[in-house]
Amino acid sequence: MFSGIVEEAAPVVKVVRDGGNVHLTLKPTFATELKIDQSVAHNGVCLTVVGLHDDGTYTVTAIDETLRRSNLGDLTEGSRVNLERCMIINGRLDGHIVQGHVDCTAVCTDIEEVDGSRYFKFEYEVSPELVKKGYVTVEKGSVTVNGVSLTVCDSELNSFRVAIIPYTFEHTNFADIRPGTRVNIEFDIIGKYIARISELS
Question: How far apart are CA 75 and CA 45, in angstroms?
Fold first, then answer.
């Protein structure tokens, strides 16, 4: 379980393709604090640490299903990835409840600078089936973009905008996003449960 508060945007130092899997090696400042089997969110995708290395790096593996649903297959050496270690359940929940289970990808279609901050617009494919499952945004609701907990503004059927303050822009890979960039989206789990209960009622 995660909160959507990114700890660090760390570089990928190695990408190894192995059949349908991809092994990603990253170098964050907290690598020496990690343990094998620990969960870490990578651009919002929960992956298990499978290797720790003496050079201050660690390795995770993304399977084919994960690669199809996320942008992890787009990563190359040098790509910056938003990282968050799993929550410790003894403090404040600063973002919102994030599972680390990416629902789909979206594409950045516009970036607008407004008084020192930036509005990013994202569009994603939508279908009646996905809407019934709660794969939608709502005005002032929560959404996770590349692992970052954000508040939705200008919610439409297949698009939404988020406001990014300078701190978030500088400390996450939002600084690397351009129109056309693909990002990972996790919709609010509470909305999904409500949609499912309504469907079964």
Answer: 13
